[in-house]
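Schema walkthrough. Field components (list of strings):
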Amino acid sequence: MKPPPFKYHDPRTVAETVELLARNENAKILAGGQSLMPMLNMRYVQPDHVIDINRVEGLSYIREAGGRLEIGAMTRQREIEYADLVARRAPIVREAILNVGHRQTRNRGTLGGSLSHLDPAAELPLVSAALEATVHVQGPKGKRDIAMAEFPAGYMSPSIELDEMVIGVTLPVWPDGHGYGFVEFSRRHGDFAIVAAAVLLDVEAGGKIKRASVTVGGVGPSPVRCRDAEKALTGEKGAEAAFRAAAETCRTIDAMEDVYAPAWYRQHLATVMTRRAMVAAFGRAANAR
Amino acid sequence: MTTIAFTLNGRATSVEVSPVRRLAHVLREDLGFTGTKVGCDAGDCGACTVFLDGAQVCACMVPAGQVAGRRIETVEGLAKDGKLTALQQAFHHFNAAQCGICTPGMLMAAADLFQRTARPSEDEVMDALGGVLCRCTGYRKIVDAVLHVAGRVPAAALDNTPDAGRAVGARFPKVDGLQKLDGREIFGADQAPADALWLRAVRSPHFSATFTVGACDALHRKYPGLVRVFTARDVPGNNGFGVYPQVKDQPVLADGDVRFRGEAVAALVGDRDTVMTIRDDEVPIHYTPRTALVGVDSALAEGAHRLHTDKPGNILAFGYVERGDADAALAAADVVVEGTFETAFVEHAYIEPEAGWARRVGDRVEVTVTTQTPYMDRDEVAQVLGIANEAVRIIPTACGGGFGGKLDISVQPLVALAAWHLDRPVRCVYHRIESMSSTTKRHPARMTARYGCTKDGALSGFTFFGDFNTGAYTSWGLTVKDRVPIHAMGPYHVPAVRAKTRAVFTNETPAGAFRGFGVPQAAITHEALMDEMAERIGMDPLEFRWKNAIRVGQPTASGQVLKASAGLAECLAALRPHWRKARAEAEAFNRTGDGVRRRGVGVGAIWYGCGATSAPNPSTMRMGVAADGTVTLYSGAQDIGQGTNTTMSQVAADGLGIAVDRLRLVWGDTDLTPDSGKTSASRQAYVSGGAAKRAGENLRAEILRLANAGQDAWLRFEPGAIVVEDRGRMQTIDLRRLEAGGPNGDVIMAEGYFDPPTEPLDEKGQGVPYATYGFAAQIAEVEVDVELGTVKVRRIVAAHDVGRSLNPTQVEGQIHGGVAQGLGLALMEEYIPGRTENLHDYLIPTFGDVPEIETILVEDPEPTGPYGAKGVGEHVLCATAPAIFGGIYQATGVRIRRAPATPDRVRAAILARKEQRP
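Field assembly_structure (string):
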């Protein structure tokens, strides 16, 4: 099939894009196109206006500022994959990226696109939640920041207005030597995750966990922060039993069910994936060694 | 419309298109670069992989507007000055391209890798190519070809120039291999006249409904580009098709009643934009849905509506084989095991969706189409149009994968019907969802069996009952219900057998032919029970099979005493050292491992009758010598990637006594080639090979007769002449003085014919259903993550009795591809109508899923086969799932009763077993 007819816009600036969004009803932003193009082809979405932001300037960057990483919305996933800065300062993002689709899709797919599409099983929203990212959006009234925890409004729905667009993300950086683990369960390499877990651990000298971040994707409609697990880990010294107990708290997350996996199995995966991510993270922490 | 300028393969290019038109379509339709293939239009298959500014992307997901000012490179740009790259050559030598439809995508992905690194590791190769799906090769030969270029794998074994008379058995590369590597090969969607109209079928969104079609005047007014809307009443001949001459129960266009979701109700014909733009719900079709009969239980339930008025109880037919008193034998057996096993719908998932075009030529119609069976297509189209068979010409394109799914017609009657009425060329290309929702599947089965043996390991009796869900129409349901009872007990000598099957209509996608015709489902059953019996009597599973393997001189359950070529025991013996080593390694791993990952090794043994079941199944091949000395083989045997064009050439060349690279091949076209039957039932190598050998021999005899020379004479083909050397006496036949004639205008010609000797089956299934059987045994080494329930196959060793290997490279290709499909059947593939209708939700194995495969070719010659050969195309798939399930058992103690063994099912089974244990 072919997409239903719509008008194509090719703006050059964010301001122009936002104005187009404000002016036109039922408009959709086209970023890397790795989800939207097939959705258009299959007519899962039928916009009247498609606004292609591939020529909008100033949206592709990876930089460090004020002890944080800043990544532009139109930064391709492959650029994040190959960025030394990301590997050094937020290595979990690189781990996550390696699970995103295949080479073909990473060469086109963008950070902003993935966040805006907000697939429940997508890797980039998951690590953004784990790192407590701030999402920067811009609309006719100007810019505003949304904490990643507040960003999902529901299943595949970001909490941004129809005339707003994601322009970038700021990722807090964890201390050097922190532990990180990203573990994904998918049926085949490159598929969307069924369940994935992202764990960050700040381990102090002597091996005690000072701070933990535990997040699972694919279980609920958007990434779920596992505060009980984080609490259980804090102060622990990385014993297998402690990880097991902390991970077990994930079994009660409200889980989705579909052709890929029943709810009980997703909950089970949440416990196994978080535990494995904890083990991986702890193993990588400098002070654990 | 916008003018978009970019660089294509180094040349400045400009095209006037909508900026949101997909790059794949711009390349193919607007610029004629059809080397880039479209398999899914959704980024799932990678067939359309091209370079955008030097990096691989899916061209189906890039809007044209984004390539303005950029560089695009396609498969057509790889070879420089007509010289293939090292990568392309390696693909050719390693047989890394079978059907060739995924090959452009694979080559581009691999070329992308070599831009980044000269000596990639195996992991890097898997990662770089991981976004491209292949359904033929099982990926391993592709990996080998790339690693060869990386300097990590030695050159492929190859025999490029076998001497006259020595082509059979040579590792001769594909005769049609090169055009699959540079974008030249023409598949179903690659070519049609520029003025061709497009056809798109409107399909039922309901599983079961009655419907009416209203007037389309308003639709025509709204869409001036719409030329005609065809419905059932426009079918001039019989509005029904089906693979059996006596059963034509599936309408070309449904007539007031739809029986499955995806059934064609109307056909829109017009310009491309128009027919692709019209929404189905704009066409005035008014459905009245009714209860859908999903699954055999609902179709068999009391009060269920009849799908077909002449089929009470929704039962298509029963199949039956009985020999001896199975109940008495089981009662007397020392050990009896039983179980019920279930399998799912399985989709062929060839990467090339159905496609073709038709034109009317006077009182004839020509259909150019991707197919497995040109002559069956011809007869089907003829009866749909109500014209003589000879008034239809089928011109097959290269076939981008079939596996049984392109035996039933798809676009053929639709484009033929439209071209016939409109007297204009009409083309149709199915999109992926349409292909998956409307074409046949593997039959889901529910099978209950009992198997018994003595305590010293002799099989005593077997009973079997299987329900096979044949979906909404008959398709190949009769073949499946007949083939299964004959094979249901497995490749063993069993004194007493009773096996019954029932094919049941449901409101689901028609189930038809898929590599194995029900035998893979039955193999899961008999092999699971073989494992259980072996365990109960304390015998090694492989030795138990070896002891009971059917041998020459023993009768089958159909009462057929095997006279020759029964190589199962030899296959099992060849596996024995691998088996013992792998079983011991798995046990050692489990003793010392972490308990989360556990390993196991299983074995599966199968047999498979070559050719149609107790039915005439002939092939004819023709050869000719032209006045200029060119020798041609006219082969109607359709190559669907397995290498038939190559093996037929080898066999015919040796029959005649000419070097194979001197032979010209004309294939497929029903006006130019004789009927070589369908590419199905593992019959081409055996049956058409038999005909090709005879064609070669008969042509040789004709030449010798003309020269009055003896049997041992040597032939030399020269321009315009044949030199015959008979015991030192040289004679020249001047071809230019001979009269040209016959269907191909040759001056000397001959045909070869072979029909395998079978005998009818009586009401108890006794007779000679097949002239010969192929045998196979495979072992699978698996690792189960017991926490997750995931199963990783680590290695397959496959031993196959092929009679005689006509071309070992092609045979290995079949084995690799069959193993990959068997793995999919075992672990991941489940087609659910309405839910898994694309290559995103329907999972087929990718690079990372297919393990190392070691192949062992056992050659126990078949006397009726060409040079001893018999078929191999389907055996390769049947043994894999049982071997994997056996491995899961050794690893976990869990017996798999339902395929696919998805992680959640395996995990649930592991939990259930824990609960049962004290």
